[in-house]
Every structure is written in structure tokens, then in C-alpha cells.
Amino acid sequence: MAEAHQAVAFQFTVTPEGLDFHLSREAVKQLYLAGLSSWKKRLVRAKNSFLTGVYPASPSSWMVVVLATAGSFYCQVDPSLGIIARIRHCLPESQLLSPESRTVVSAAIFSTGVWLSAVLLFRQTLKLLLSYHGWMFEPHGKMSRRTKIWVALMKVLSVRKPLLYSFQTSLPKLPVPSVEATITRYLQSVRPLMDDERYGKMEALAKEFKEKTAPRLQKYLILKSWWTTNYMMALGIVPMCSYQSERMFNTTRIPGKETDTLLHLVDSKHLAVYHKGRFYKVWLYYGGQVLRPRDLEMQFQRILDDPSPPQPGEERLAALTAGERVPWAEARARFFSHGKNKASLDAIERAAFFLTLDEEEHGYVPGQEGCMDAYAKSLLHGQCYDRWFDKSFTLVVYKNGKLGANAEHSWADAPIIGHLWEFMLATDKFQLGYTEGGHCLGEPDTLLAPPQRLQWDIPQECRAAIESSYRLAKALADDVDFCCFQFNRFGKGLIKKCRTSPDAFIQISLQLAHFRDKGCFCLTYEASMTRLFREGRTETVRSCTAEATAFVRSMVDAHQTRVERQRLFKLAAEKHQQMYRMAMTGAGIDRHLFCLYVVSRYLGVQSPFLAQVLSEPWRLSTSQTPQQQLKMFDLNKYPDHVSTGGGFGPVADDGYGVSYIIAGENLITFHVSSKFSSPETDSKRFGRNIRQAMLDIAELFDKPAEKGGK
Prior knowledge:
Elements: H1 2-7, E1 10-15, E2 18-23, H2 25-51, H3 59-74, H4 83-90, H5 99-130, H6 145-157, H7 163-169, H8 179-190, H9 196-227, E3 251-254, E4 261-264, E5 270-275, E6 278-283, E7 285-286, E8 289-290, H10 293-305, H11 325-335, H12 339-349, E9 354-357, H13 371-381, E10 393-397, E11 403-407, H14 414-432, E12 452-453, H15 460-478, E13 480-487, H16 492-497, H17 502-518, E14 524-529, E15 538-542, H18 546-555, H19 562-584, H20 590-603, H21 608-615, E16 620-624, E17 656-662, E18 668-675, H22 683-700
């Protein structure tokens, strides 16, 4: 409850006797720590900005200003208009300073002030520019004068690549939405899912909450926003920030009985590797230099050639990270807090990342049905003991050379690992390369010490805990019904010809597919980014809108005309785009509602409205994986190098999880998940409904799919 503690440090009420003021010492402590953490980050970023030479806050720019001022002054030109003379007059008398030295010191003080003023002016100007989000709401083909000016200024500032860090440090804080706006948008989002009676009850609950409870909760969120850089940031639990790339490596989630924490190291010089039930430590540096690819290949081959068997209890040890968190926290404290077990666990948790050399073979095989399903399902959970699920990510390399990654979600969101993946694949293919025999270029250094085999002493009680976690994880994994397929009848190229957003097109297609699949609508989650704000992460777009449901009903109504369906689709697409833009610009509702709920829990306030909001299941959870965040190669020229994106499991037991990646102009890959145990769901069936929905909507606009596609 650290988040709630931070928010409600101060409580006061106005009574007939005066002001009743209550101070929670623990809450003040938590609020102080949250603010301290935020300000530490600011100081670190300011220091990095100074040291990395980001204009204008660089030592060289300061020196230029000092020398220019001093030079001008000695040339009988006073750029300070008398201020340097005044500073000199105010300096204390000292025999150590000659008149010339006093002049130099005065000029240095003045020029430093000028330099700092320029830096602050630059930062504030940049922050003001980054606070403008009107460009997102401009209609296609039109642009207001204000946006044109904004674009021109941003182009000027973007000329220098080092300014990227300045852009990050100048991001505005995420605003706290008003209760009125949040409640209104919430009611709009659930209206198409409720009959008149249910909606009437929810409307009454919302009204009571807005008038009686919400004002008290809201003031604490506003208080927190004054002190910290993000009113939603949870101290020490889930860092919600746009600096997620900092935690990409050297990061591990540590289990706790009350709450988990993230261990992040500034640097790590080794990898943790798993193969055939054995754990290894592989150094990444030798003689202060990073190992070359050929040296790493030799080290991995040494692991593959190692005939030694796993130690007792070692093979399924990682299952502890796949089971419930409290048993893992207890086992960690009891069996891994000393001796060789602690040393080996530290080697894993302090590694740059985790690498699994998997003995299975997976990948896309033309004409082999279900190959992508098995590939994706393996990356999602593997054998439940051959991925370290607490690491920031586990890189999985299969026996046939195919690879993928399993990413832990608390440290970052999907675009971050997607960014890494694109960089890694493009670097591997277009910069490093291989010999004709398939080896990395160069000759290995055979004098390198071999990988270090990690040693364990796992007692029977610990093995029992491992097996318990494994059985639980295995049951969950076996229940995952995963379907991964490529939709190549068309891509964003044809969708744009329909004059609509590709994301809106797909989201509306999912609504149509779901209605055909289940015969009803459901609360739908689509993740959007809030990285336009300091320490922002995600917000929710509630895609099942009244406009979308109206269009879907028209598609299943044989009496509706083509023209009417087109009109309703346009309305649904425009509504979706508007909601997505609002979520990205800080006007979402779900994070605000969650924060209000957290504060209510700490205050002991019972809110039937918030209880109802948080209990509603997301039976359709969706997300888009961004593609081509880096322009390291031409996707059209190398279409076989496109990524298939990633997926996740269903959020609700009777629901679907859908991830998709719009890969180029003519390809969209879908990842659909559900549970075998639910009689209402079938991932392959839903996949077929998605295909048909996409085709049916495209046909509405006289944009039939190209013949010969699948």
C-alpha cells in the first residue's frame, strides 16, 4: 500500500470547532521517499545531461560563454552593461585577488549566470513545446497554423541528435484528470454493455461517488502530483516511467511476502545461461573489453558440449519464478540466503539477462499447420522451468537456430523489448554477419576461461517447494490455447486507402469477430502509451464503444445498406481514434480510477462504485506491437526479416488475449490466446472470425483483397 501511503500523508477537515488536522507519520515518510526518489532522478538526469554534452548544458558551451565574455570585457566592450563592474564591487576584499583576477572572477560569475539562464530558458521552451499535443488531433490533410509553427520549431530543435536526452528530461508531468471527466467517460464506455436497468444502477452509484467520496480522494492525488513526477508511480513496486530502457539489462524482479521489488544494477559483466537443466555463468568481458561474437560462440559451444548432469533439484529450480510469489519469497529467504545457493542465485539475479539454450526446435515452416502456434506457446512459458521469469527478459535460442524472447512486464512495456529486438536482429544480420559455414566472423580466443558451472545444495524441502510451483505453473501453461497466424491478404497499405487508421480498422474488426464468436459484446482493453509524459507508461482505450457496436449490429443485419454500414464504420473509426489520442495525451480514465481505488483502500473508505469498476472483467484484452521503431533496414527490400511480434495470455478465464503487429504494407500477424478449460472460447475459431471480419470490412469500401492470398 505504499502508493496509498504516499497519497494520503495529510488529512484535514473543517469542523464547527475549526480545522481538524491529522498527520500520518508513516504516510509522510512514504510521501517523502517518493518525492526524494523523483528528485534524485531529476538530479541524475541533469548530471547526465551536463556530462554527455547535450546542448546547451555542456561544459564546452559554458567555457565558450565564459571566454567570450572575458575576451569582450578586455577588448573594452562590456557585454554585461555594467553588471560585471557591480559584481566586482560586491566581491570581498582579498590580498589573494589582484584587480585583474577580480575582473576575471566577476566576468566568470556573470557569464555563468547568463549560461544558466540560457539553459533554463531552453529547457522551459522545450517543455512548453512538448506539452503541446494539438498535432495529434489534426484532421487528415489539414493542419492549423499553430501546429505548423510547432512542427517547424521541433524540426529545428531535432537537428541535433544529442537533443534526444533533452526531449526526455523536458517531458511534462502526467496531469491528474478531473473526476467529472473520468466519470462521464466511464459511463459512456459501459453504456453499450448494459441494459437500461443495469445502467441506471451504475449511473446512480457513479453520481453518489462523484458527489460524496471522490472529492476527498482526488485531493490526495493532486497533492502527490505536486511533490512527485507522476501521481501514479508506485514506490519500489512498479516503476511507471518513460525511462524504461534503463532497466532493459541488469534487472530482476525480487519476490516479497508483501510486495515484489525490482533489483536494477548500473552494469553487469556476465550472462546467466541454462541448458539441459544446468545453470552457467558466462563472462561478457575479458581484459576490460567486451567479448567478440566469435568468443561468445565458443563459450556457448562449451556449454553445449558439457556432458555433466544436473545437480539434485537444479533442473526445475526456475519453476519457483513461475509459481505463486509468496512461496517463492519464503523459499528464497530460507534456502538461498547463504552459502553456495546465495552465490549462484546472485549470479542469476545480477546477470545482464538470462539465456536459454533450448533443446527443442521451433519456427515458421511453410505449409506446416500449427508451427507458429507451438513456437509462440513455447516462448510464452516453455517447460515452466527453463526460463527465469523474474529476469527482465529471457533470450531463448532453439536447437535449429530460431530464437525469441520471454519478457517480464513490470519493468517495461512491449515497445521497449520490441525496440531491442529490432536492433538486435538488424545488427546481427546487416552489421555483424557470419561465415559461409555459419560461424561468427573472426577467430576465437581459446585462452578464455570456460563458463562457470553454478553450484547448488538444494535440500529436500526446497525440492518440494520447486515441484509445487512447477505443478501449478504446468497446469496454467497446459490450459493456454494459443493461435498465431499471419494475415497476408492485405496490410496497412490497403487500410489507409480506406481513409482510416489501421489500428482503428483492426480494433473494429475485433469487435465484429467477437460478436460473431460469442454473440455478445464485452469490456475491451487496448493498451496505449503515455510516454509523452514524464514517467508515463500506459493507459487503457476502451474499444467497445457505442459507435463500434452500432456498426457491428449493422453488419449482422441483412436489411442494412452498404452505404449505411460505411457511414457507421467511419463514425466508429473516428471515435476510436479520438479515444486513443485522449488516452495518449493524459485524458484516460482507467489509471485515474485505479489510483482513486488505492487511496480509498488506505483511507478505509468503502466505495460500491469503485468496487464495481474494478470487478468488471476484461474479456477481450488487446495490444499492438510497434514495428520499425528503428530504420536500420528497408522492410520492403527484406520482407523475410519482418518480426512476428509477441503475445500474452488471456486476462479473463472466459476471454481472449489478442496481440497484433502491423508489419509493413501487406502483412499483419495476430497472436490469439484463450483457455482450453473455457467452453466459451476457442483461439483458432476466433482467429478465423478475425480473418473474415477483416475481409468483410475491406469489401465495404470496394477494396477487395488481392487474389491468391491466404
